[in-house]
Amino acid sequence: xxxxxxxxxxxxxxxxxxxxxxxxxxxxxxxxxxxxxxxxxxxxxxxxxxxxxxxxxxxxxxxxxxxxxxxxxxxxxxxxxxxxxxxxxxxxxxxxxxxxxxxxxxxxxxxxxxxxxxxxxxxxxxxxxxxxxxxxxxxxxxxxxxxxxxxxxxxxxxxxxxxxxxxx
Length: 168
Description:
- With 168 residues, this protein is an all-alpha fold.
- The protein has helices at residues 7-26, 31-47, 53-78, 96-115, 118-134, 138-143, 146-162.
């Protein structure tokens, strides 16, 4: 993915992140309450590692939408235009088994989405959006480098199990 996030686009993504962290902080502060947003964030991060396909397209579209909305919002509210971009980052690459694990996780995510309540769906969507957008910045990509490593390890482990190399 070559689309970079602008400073204004980051404002949109960080605002979504802050809203979700604040609602968790003002709530019970239980880990399970953070799971919908956190799971969405990891999902969005994983999709930024997809070189193309539908997930890569979603990642590109999310960044472009965040940039447009942020630019418009900053311009309308402050009168300032043309904020510039941020250093582009990358989480790394998926192996083929890792990509398969991302797809399986997306199927599981769709099942969870279907069963989730309205509030959790909003949190999940906010997490996916934040992951898709923030993970293309150099700093956030550094924080989330473990995501493709996790999917690559899960995929490789699944292949090993199916090949009989690991006994359960």
